[in-house]
Fold:
Amino acid sequence: MDALQTIQGHRSIRKYKSEPVSELILKSILEAAIRGSNTGNMQVYSIVVTQDETIKNQLAPTHFNQKMVVESPVLLTFCVDFNRFNKWCQFRKANPGYDNIQSFTWATIDTIIAAQNAAITAESFGLGICYLGTTTYNADKIIEILKLPEGVVPITTIAMGYPDESPSLTDRLPFEAVVHSEVYHDYSKEDIDRLYAEKEAMISTLQLIEENKTENLAQIFTEKRYTKNDNLHFSKIWLKVLKKQGFMNNE
Structure:
């Protein structure tokens, strides 16, 4: 029940107290991450722990200078890591074949599982966390700062520390919008109208529409937050990163 309460109480925290996270708690969080399910028990991921102010300041621009990058006591950068596994194979006269999109995909899944284990454990200790989706946007620069070798790619970052704010729970779509019984059931216009009705009627949504001068919430996502031009721009950078780090070269 404690785990369920922790998950149900999740909030993204963007303001942190200066109080440090003890080494004992941090180690427990990292050990929980390592216990996550992963493909073939290969553990093709690594976690870079950043607490040094100088390095956090270097990382800040890669995360669009969000204050929490510098203000949070701990940053955890979760990376796909075939560098370690490939070396193990080579030192054992085994020929690794993981420089492809399939391997990268399941390693990414395993990396995210480790990250979520860390997030839930941190919250169970009373810490706040926030995922930084900007990690893949500027992965090339993060690679340089964290000195990631070929075969290692940053996937996500978690800012972590004791909360200095208490935001309300973020809304979620209704259960039936996400869960399908037996097979996938496609959505009619009526279904979409019904499933998004509560979200679209929220006061905060109406305020956002007014601030952004759009007709509706969907347009805020497509025209303001996650535009096609931005997605294409960062996709080009991401593909270059994957090739540079040794993936997709045989595609």
Remarks:
- Strands lie at 45-50, 74-81, 128-132, 152-161.
